[in-house]
Amino acid sequence: TELPDFLSRCHSLRKLSVKNNRIGVIGDEVPMMEGLEVLNVHGNMLISLPETFGEFMNLSILIASDNKLRGLPATFEGLTNLQVLGLEKNMFKFLPVCIPKMDNLRMLSFNFNEITEVSEDVGQLKKLDRLWLEGNKISMFPETLALAPELDDLKIGGNDFTGLPDCIGQLYGMRDLNICNLKLIRLPDTFEWLYNLQSLDVSHNNLSVFPPEILQLKALRELQYAGNALKQLPEGISVLENLHVLNLKENQLRDMPESFSQLKLLNILDLTANQFREIPLSVCATISLKYLDFSNCHISTLPVELGRLRNLRSLILDNNTFDTLPETIYGMQELTELRFADNGVSALPAEIVRLGKICVIDASKNPMEDPGHTIISGGMGPIKEYFQRKLFSSKSGPPAFHVDVRGIRAAV
């Protein structure tokens, strides 16, 4: 399939998107559109780009991801206005030699190709602020990247090198760094110089001991630390006072430090697939939390202190071993999602009707009887009706369950 012929007459066209087609060839009709500034050919079957591509003097954005490209034409270096080049999911084995000559390039993505080596000349791209090389076969970190003064977003995870050079600490302006899936066992001492770093992904390495260098990154807002066989968080974790997102799933944690509750801005905490037997009280005291996931953690009991998480919106407790929910759950007035599938719970606490904002309750794979799964699957409306009927059907004496009658009436 080729581009339609009429495009050769669209001399004033500024933007063209032909993504997700079956285009295998780009002929001479595209270069005739000399005013083109944005071209998106993502998701086609291109194996090459024409030599006449260099005539796109006004082109500033080119997205040619998810094709079968192996190289770029020599005339490509003539695209002096090109600022964004997206070539992820192609078949490149090296960075084309024309890339370092494109002085205005600001964003370069070669994620998920077959690149084995990055030219030292890439450091010449003085305006480059985003470089994405994730999921290639690069065996050595290009040290000249430290010479790229504007670089603030670097994704190099999923490559073949197993260590980082000291020069990475010279990327002082770095704000977003992905170094996951690299088999790292430590971070260089200079890592602590990345004092502007806001997002760090070190997931699926071999960092079984929490690197002290990370504790120096006081601007950090997001830390992805999944899959590292980590056994313990340091007490000093509380110094990361700007942390909003912390992903610690698939580690070997059994407890959390007492200082954890001092993370006053933490909103999202994922502790899926660790070795907890109970939810640490320091987590229950982290009252800023909005999302909490303790799935697949062998938790046998839930503490009453869980109700202190009054800002929580999502509570995920799937695949544990507890058989009751604490009555104090009514304290989570902002809760919209409650999931505790695959546990041993047979009854909901009547206090659950006070959760006026809840939209999702997943109690599947529990031996639910009070109320049954049919009622629970209908949502909070049927659940409230169930407890209301149960309350007023009691003919004498106090209800069989302890609950504030006024609270239920107000809730329903």
Give the total of beta strands: 16
Query: How would you write the strand order of the largest sheet?
Result: 1-2-3-4-5-6-7-8-9-10-11-12-13-14-15-16
- The secondary-structure class comes to little secondary structure
Order of helices and strands: EEEEEEEEEEEEHEEEEHHH
**What's the pLDDT, averaged over the residues?**
90
Q: Given the C-alpha coordinates, what overall shape results?
A: globular
Radius of gyration, in Å, reads 28 Å
What attributes characterize this protein structure?
412 residues; little secondary structure; 16-stranded parallel beta sheet; 7% helix; globular; 12% strand
What can you tell me about this protein's structure?
By secondary structure, the chain is mostly loops. Helices cover 7% and strands 12% of the residues. It contains 4 helices and 16 strands. Strand 12, helix 1 and strand 13 form a beta-alpha-beta unit. Helix 3 runs antiparallel to helix 4. The longest helix is centred in the C-terminal third of the chain and has 13 residues. The protein is globular, with a radius of gyration of 28 Å. The relative contact order is 0.05. The C terminus is likely disordered.
